[in-house]
Amino acid sequence: MVYESQTVGYEFPSEYRGEDDQSSVFSEGALAARWKSCFHEAAHLLAAAVLMGRSSRAMVLNDGGGLANVGDGGGVPKTDEEAIVVAVGEVAGELAKKYSRPHGPLRIWLEASQPRLTISQVRSALLDGTVPDDDTVIARWCIAGNERRPHRWRRRFDWLDEQAHAFVEAHEHELVALAGQLFLHGTITLPATPAERI
């Protein structure tokens, strides 16, 4: 099953422009970080669409960071599917080593027009712990309900890791396509779809 993605229906400000020569704007390291982040965020998007039937949106930032809104409200996942949506990001990020990034005009935020409120809110929330990073969310999910049974934490983590790897392997070609679109366009949205059973 192939899911079409499209650029978010958003009017980009004039300060958001295409850049034909990627290396004239970013260092090789920054481009590599952006490419890895695109796989990470694309995996969150695709997993939310496939496993939970949710519309989702992602944005990659100039510095290689990224954001994904998958409609889960953050916090500790309440279902196995929500936990998998979180776990696939890190696994998919490794695909950036296997595939070359796309060439072509790159939409970038100029310094003056970056969505500072969103970025600063997210970064401060990550720093102060209001919004935990993916690893923290996964750890909390593994422990939840098993606080007095540490041996179960590892079993839950191993199961989740196995599920994340299986999802990325099964959807690798779609992830490459989505990551490429996110890399070039800076933002993408996936529509809601009927959810698959795990």
Gist?
This protein has 198 residues and is mainly α. It has helices spanning 22-25, 28-52, 80-93, 116-128, 134-143, 150-170, 172-185; strands spanning 16-19, 56-60, 66-69, 106-109, 187-190. The longest helix has 25 residues, at 28-52.
Description:
It is a single chain. By secondary structure, this protein is mostly helical. It has one domain. Helices cover 51% and strands 11% of the residues. It is built from seven helices and five strands; from the N terminus they run βααββαβααααβ. It has helices at residues 22-25, 28-52, 80-93, 116-128, 134-143, 150-170, 172-185; strands at 16-19, 56-60, 66-69, 106-109, 187-190. A hairpin with a 5-residue loop joins strand 2 and strand 3 (66-69). Helix 2 (28-52) packs antiparallel against helix 3 and helix 3 (80-93) runs antiparallel to helix 5. The longest helix is centred in the first third of the chain and has 25 residues, at 28-52. The protein is globular. The chain starts with 15 loop residues before the first strand and ends in an 8-residue tail after the last strand. Residues 1-19 and 110-117 have low confidence and may be disordered.
